[in-house]
């Protein structure tokens, strides 16, 4: 079965850089997507196709991929970036979808 | 800009069937895939299943025996039914548009955007 593993939490001071990893055997062959979920809100897509930033997402959000690990980087973290972040991928035929375990980003 | 809104009972009794509807506004349900995702309180996201506007479906194997997703194009809605619920089915249920991309193998569903605001369903006697 597909599994995507993320660290439970990341803490970062304002203005610093937060890096969130997502690991899974499916990732060398399938794209990863990242969602931000603020408390009490629905998830919002922040990175598509490993590294593409959708319209309206701040430039401080970026993504990268290397082998079985993808990384979401938030440069110059702001207080409003405090949220849960989830990676997501799919199988090769788009018939099964999996989310990562989620990472809580705390802005100190 | 497409918007989605979930609706349905917030309380369901154990062993009964959970029924939710997602109303799509700002665009047609036609030509796209639509999905349900849930999130138990304080926990992570779980994909439930999706439906293509034509009616073809795909479900998470862990829920497949209990899930039915259907579409009503005349109302621009799609629906979720989950039977024989237990307390483990207590969650926020989200509907979302499932975006597909053109890839070497064809047009392949890939990611969820946008999402509805979600609705909390509690299973309790």
Q: Helicity level of chain A, as a percent range?
A: under 10%
- Unreliable stretches covering 5 or more consecutive residues of chain B: none
What is the residue-mean pLDDT of chain A, rounded to a whole number?
96
How far apart lie the N and C ends of chain B? 39 Å
Which strand-content bin applies to the residues of chain A?
35-45%
Estimate percent helicity of chain B.
under 10%
Largest interface, Cβ cutoff 8 Å: A-B, 25 and 23 residues
Task: Output the helix-strand order of chain B.
Answer: EEEEEEEEEEE
Distance between the termini of chain A: 36 Å
Helix and strand composition category of chain B = mainly beta
- What percentage of amino acids of chain B are in beta strands? over 45%
The total count of strands of chain A amounts to 9
Please count the beta strands of chain B (DSSP E, at least 2 residues each): 11
Number of helices of chain A: 0
Map the helices and strands.
The complex is a heterodimer of chains A (108) and B (125).
Chain A: E1 9-12, E2 18-23, E3 33-37, E4 44-47, E5 61-66, E6 69-74, E7 83-90, E8 97-99, E9 103-107
Parallel strand pairs in A: 1-9
Antiparallel strand pairs in A: 2-6, 3-4, 3-7, 5-6, 7-8, 7-9
Chain B: E1 3-7, E2 11-12, E3 18-25, E4 33-39, E5 46-52, E6 57-59, E7 67-72, E8 77-82, E9 91-103, E10 106-115, E11 119-123
Question: Describe it for me?
Answer:
The complex is a heterodimer of chains A (108) and B (125). Chain A has 108 residues and is mainly β. Chain A has strands spanning 9-12, 18-23, 33-37, 44-47, 61-66, 69-74, 83-90, 97-99, 103-107. In chain A, strand 5 and strand 6 form a beta hairpin. In chain A, 39% of the residues are buried. With 125 residues, chain B is mainly beta. Chain B is built from no helices and 11 strands. Chain B has strands at residues 3-7, 11-12, 18-25, 33-39, 46-52, 57-59, 67-72, 77-82, 91-103, 106-115, 119-123. At the A-B interface, strand 7 and strand 8 of A face strand 9 and strand 10 of B.
């Amino acid at each position: 079965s597909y599994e995507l593993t993320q660290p439970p939490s990341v803490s970062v001071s304002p203005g610093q850089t937060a890096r969130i990893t997502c690991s899974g055997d499916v990732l060398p062959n399938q794209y990863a997507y990242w969602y931000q979920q603020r408390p009490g809100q629905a998830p919002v897509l922040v990175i598509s196709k490993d590294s593409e930033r959708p319209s309206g997402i701040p430039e401080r959000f970026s993504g990268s991929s290397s082998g079985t690990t993808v990384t979401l980087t938030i440069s110059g973290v702001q207080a409003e970036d405090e949220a849960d972040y989830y990676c997501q991928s799919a199988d090769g035929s788009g018939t099964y979808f999996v989310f990562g375990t989620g990472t809580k980003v705390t802005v100190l | 800009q497409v918007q989605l809104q979930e609706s349905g009972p917030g309380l369901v009794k154990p062993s009964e069937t959970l029924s939710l509807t997602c109303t799509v506004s700002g665009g047609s349900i036609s030509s796209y895939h639509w999905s349900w995702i849930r999130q138990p309180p304080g926990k992570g996201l779980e994909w439930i299943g999706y439906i293509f506007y034509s009616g073809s479906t795909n479900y998470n194997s862990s829920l497949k025996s209990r899930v039915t997703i259907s579409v009503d194009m005349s109302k621009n809605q799609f629906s979720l039914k989950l039977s024989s619920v237990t307390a483990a089915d207590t969650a926020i249920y989200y509907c979302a548009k499932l975006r597909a991309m053109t890839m070497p193998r064809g047009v392949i569903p890939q990611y969820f955007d946008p999402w509805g605001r979600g609705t909390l369903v509690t299973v309790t006697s």
